[in-house]
Amino acid sequence: KNEKKEKYSMLFMKTIFLYLTIVIISYRIGLIINKILKNHNYISIILYGFLTTVAILQIIYIPLILLHVSFEFVLYITIFIISILFITSFFICKPKQEKKFFKHNYAKLKHIKKTDFVIASILILMVLTQATVSSLLFNENADDAFYVSLVEENQNSDAIYTHAPSLGSENTIFLSRYMISGYELSLSVLAKIFNIPSTTLCHTIIPFIMILFSYMAYYLLARKLLHKNRTAMIYVLLLSILFLFSGFTSRFRGIILLSRMWQGKEIFLNIVLTLILVNLISLSKYNEKRNIKALLILNLSAVFFTNTAIFLVPFAYIGFGIIALFQRNWKTYS
Question: Phi first, then psi: what are they for 263, rounded to 5°?
Answer without folding.
Answer: -85, 140
